[in-house]
Amino acid sequence: MLNFMKMVLRPGCRAASRSLTRTAFYHQSWSKSPQIIISPARRFLRTEVVENFAEEEQRISKFEVFRARALHKGRVGEREVEALLAEADAQLAFLLNCCADSLPHLPGPTRLHLASQIWTRFAEKEGYKVTKLDVLALLNVFSSAGQSVDLSELLPPTEASRFLRDRDVLLQLLDCHSEGANPTKCEETIDLLKSLGKTSGDAEFAALILAHGKSHNFERVESVLKAMEELEVPPGPLSLFALLRAQILNSQPVERTLKSMQGQSLPSSEEHMAKVILSLAEANNTKLVGPILRVFPVNGLSHCIRNMVIRLIHQDRHFFACNIYHLLLTNCNPEVLNSILAFFPTELVKSNKSAVDILEICISLQSNFPNHNSFLLYALEESLKDKSKGGLSGELLSHASPLRNHFFWPLIVHCGSPEEMVRVLNHMQSLGLRPDFDTLAFYVFPGMLRWDAPMAVLKLLQAECGLSVATQLGPMLNALLIDKHLQEALDLCKMINQRTLDLRKLTKSLSSAVLKKKSFGVAAHLVALLAESRHKFAEVDFVGLFLIEYCSRCSPADLKELLSHMAKFKVRMSMASYEGLLTKAAVKQIGIQYLDLLTNSTYSGLNTFQPIAHPRDMDVEELEAHLVELKSKSMNTRGVLRRLLQAHCRLKNVDRALQIKKEMDSLRFELSPGILSSLLSLYTEMEDVASATEILHQIQEYPRFALDWFKIVDFCRLKVRTGADFDEVSELLEQHIFQVRRSKRFSIDAHNCIKLLDEVKKSYGDQKRDLLLNKFSENEII
Predict the structure, then answer these.
(1) Residue 25, SS3?
(2) What is the rounded (10 degree) CA torsion for 557, 559, 563, 565?
(3) What does the pLDDT average to over 439-451?
(4) Considering the entire predicted model, what is its pTM?
(5) The dihedral of CA 569, 570, 574, 575: what is its sign?
């Protein structure tokens, strides 16, 4: 952070450091680290790091962070520039210079339009007075875009006349006319300089030479050179570089000019060399690049040269840029070469070049830089970041080597349906790549489980993708445990008797799920089933590994209860794990007698130890058995019935859930809002709109109860499907989602909302769908 802020310098400096965050455009504060404070009197001079958080100083503004980033990277985005217009300390001159120098991917007219927006915004500010730096920056934008301009059209007459008496402004205006190929305006500006006695000689002739050269009138260029000889004005750096560009644009020999420039040992700026190379690209002359770079070598890929290459790529001169790229990097430090080269293929993807062009250029770059990492992989990774470039990614994947599973992760994340997921997995396998454990556990199954039950997902991928259940089971269990779905993982293990697993990969996710859910009965049963599975590789002590992982984070009371439940299933661990657990603090507090339950050793007094599980830790079968026991003893069954009803609603056991509800109604048990919420989901699944509506009315009697948003969306989808009025559906969404979201932010998965929009389109048409879509967008849901 200190290195970053030390480079926030005054406006004219061109030095800054790397931003520490991906969103460097916004400033963040760290409560535990030294805060960065800038004194108002020294805002643009230097920064300070202070440890005293109570010191009342002004913090870094968004504009200062933006300026530092722009100076360091040499490139900004147009949206970043537009977002800064409302900042109080934003500097007009700097923003305009960004339009000229730091937006190489935009064409000239687009940069001029953005500059005009900035100029108008500042002109509308009350009390703002345009300065000389502002005018120079605006003229710099026109010069960069190759456009001639009349200053009187940009400023009021009094302001224009004042600036037209300034030598620096006139010289910048002269540069605009020369880059815009307007010799007439050049002559008028030169006459104005002469009338004020502010001519410099070389700059005026350079402007005329370049203006005639860009107008493809080389005879007039020669007449200007003859006039210089008659006036005994020696060619200077500006006129020689202008002559070189004019000769290139008009296909004239340049050897004499280069020899003259070499004889004078003229210093070459990066701006001059970038303009010369752009002229070579316009003339499509690659043969002269080598001789010119030998006379004026480029030392590394600076911001100016890099932006020039980007401009060539976005001007569809990417093959020219590729042909000269290795010449530009001849004198580059090999240690930084890799980081410099990577931007070329990524920029090809950003500029929407075809897969054929990208492949051809990547092959060419690889031949020029054989020791460099694969250029094609850089292009592939960039294309995978953008969902709209799925077709391009598919073509590049067909040629990439070696293929890795992580290349396909962005494509999997972007999938919006099971069909798309199946298509991506089949594409992987068609290229000879099998999805590995991480791909399935962390990317495929989290998405698929949003659409279907675990067993249905396994069967779908087995039928459509040829993935065996044995291959999928381990990743599926890991995905369920990461989402803390212990009961679903247990049910899946019960359904699949023949299990071959890599148990080592399940210990962390299982321990995290148990720590979160505290369902010790379910966890113990799951551990027992997993311990009976065949090991995919070498035999492991799964029980011991799990307990060692769990003991490092659990409380002694939780460990005691878990061990008591595990003892009921007669699971065993190795003595090595037993000895390792003896060193854990939680084990020392509860006593080793509980560990002895899971070994073959005996402990006096514990043979008859049979702990009774709490109903919250029982699975469905245990709850049903417990209900029978309570009824036989004429004890209170309210708590068990409530848990059973919620469990059967969650598992979509409709008949049993309705039977339990009927029993609770007969006993006049009052239903809590949580149970009503589960019933709403059940009736929605059954498409019983009348019962679901009645349940919703009952839930509304509890104004403080926060109903799950997705249950409301699914209920609204049912209402739409059954012909409800659109206004009624809109009112439900407004009451239960939009109003709540405005007052309290919460995470929403747009998948259910998209299904609702599709249903609205089918029932009410595009107009109603668009109306609802706007509401979702306004509330940042879609």
Answers:
(1) coil
(2) 60
(3) 86
(4) 0.54
(5) positive
